Each structure stands twice: as C-alpha cells, then as structure tokens.
C-alpha cells in the first residue's frame, strides 16, 4: 500500500511544476481579465488577481511576452488601484515589486534596467514573486545580469564590482 502513495506523489509533483513553468504572457492576461474584471468581484479578490498577474508575468515566456512591458504596467497599476481603496491592503512584496517593475523597462536586457533592479533588490529583504526564492538568491541573479548587460564589467572583476556598488548605492539612495 505504501508504493501507490509514493508513486502518486512522484507523478503529481512534476505535472504541477511543468504546468506552472509553461505559462505564457497571454495566458496570464486571460486569467487576469477573467478574475479581475468579472462584475461583482470583491476588491480583495481583485487584489489577489492583480498580484497573481504580476507573479505570473515574472515567470512567463512565449506568446504575448513581446508586450510584457505594458502588461506588467497594468499589473502594477491594478495593485496600486486596489491598494488605494479604503480598507483594502494590496501590495506586492518588495522583491516581487522589483521583479515586476523590471518588466516595465524597454528593453529589459539593458545595463540600466538590470542595475536598477539590483539596486531595488538591495532595498528589500522578502521573498521573490514565486514566494520561495530568497532575496539574497535573487540579488545574486541580478548581479550576474548586471555583469552580463553592463559592458564595463566585461573584462574586469574590480570594475564590475565597483560599477555594481555605485548602481546599488544610487538605487538605495533614490529609493525614497
């Protein structure tokens, strides 16, 4: 009897992971529109839909992602709109806000976008949009992206470290 229970766990877990990874920006938008714009939806549920939209976009790829900049802006604006309603608290975690805001840069794979996101990450301590990845792990990812996207980092570890530090200090200083 033990074997069927263990087997079912091994069969179900990979299926759930694959389903989550396969999200496209279009499928994120379709789900958001269904959950957010349905008449009579309570504001707290609209908050959940807006936050889920941001989380989905951060992990999405494929169809519809060429317009991810406007979609991420919609997600952020929806969270802000719900948060401004009296009695409803709706906010993304700081790290998730950094990740979502990064998607609004055009293009996202630039030195400025990556360095700004890294600076934002240093201003936060909570987990990322996926709800599990630590801020420390995300900062490591963004340091690598800064190194990749900022040409000053191409040949020198020292130059890269100093450039990253400057962007981080500026990001923290400009945070407020």
Molecular structure report:
The protein is an all-alpha fold and 176 residues long. It has two domains: 1-91, no CATH class; 93-176, no CATH class. 67% of the residues lie in helices and 0% in strands. It is built from eight helices and no strands. The chain has helices at 2-21, 25-36, 43-59, 68-83, 94-102, 111-122, 135-149, 157-173. α2 (25-36) runs antiparallel to α3, α3 (43-59) runs antiparallel to α4 and α5 packs antiparallel against α6. The termini are far apart.
Summarize this entry quickly:
This protein is mainly alpha-helical and 176 residues long.
Task: Give me some keywords for this one.
176 residues, mainly alpha, 8 helices, globular, disordered N terminus
Uncertain stretches? 1-21
Shape field? globular
End-to-end separation in angstroms reads 59 Å
The residue fraction in helices comes out at 55-70%
Report the count of strand segments.
0
CA-atom Rg in angstroms: 19 Å
Topology:
Layout: H1 2-21, H2 25-36, H3 43-59, H4 68-83, H5 94-102, H6 111-122, H7 135-149, H8 157-173
Helix pairs in contact: 2-3, 3-4, 3-5, 5-6, 6-7, 6-8
């Amino acid at each position: 009897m033990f074997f069927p229970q263990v087997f079912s766990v091994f069969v179900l877990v990979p299926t759930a992971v694959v389903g989550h990874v396969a999200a496209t920006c279009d499928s994120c938008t379709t789900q958001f529109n269904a959950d957010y714009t349905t008449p009579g939806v309570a504001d707290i549920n609209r908050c959940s839909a807006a936050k889920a939209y941001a989380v989905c976009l951060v992990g999405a790829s494929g169809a519809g992602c060429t317009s991810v900049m406007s979609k991420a802006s919609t997600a952020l604006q929806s969270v802000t709109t719900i948060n401004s309603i009296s009695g409803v608290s709706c906010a993304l975690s700081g790290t998730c806000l950094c990740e979502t805001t990064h998607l609004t840069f055009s293009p996202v794979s630039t030195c400025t976008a990556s360095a700004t996101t890294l600076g934002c990450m240093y201003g936060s301590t909570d987990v990322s949009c996926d709800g599990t990845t630590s801020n420390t792990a995300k900062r490591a990812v963004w340091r690598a992206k800064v190194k990749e996207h900022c040409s000053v980092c191409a040949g020198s570890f020292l130059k890269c470290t100093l450039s990253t530090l400057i962007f981080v200090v500026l990001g923290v200083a400009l945070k407020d």
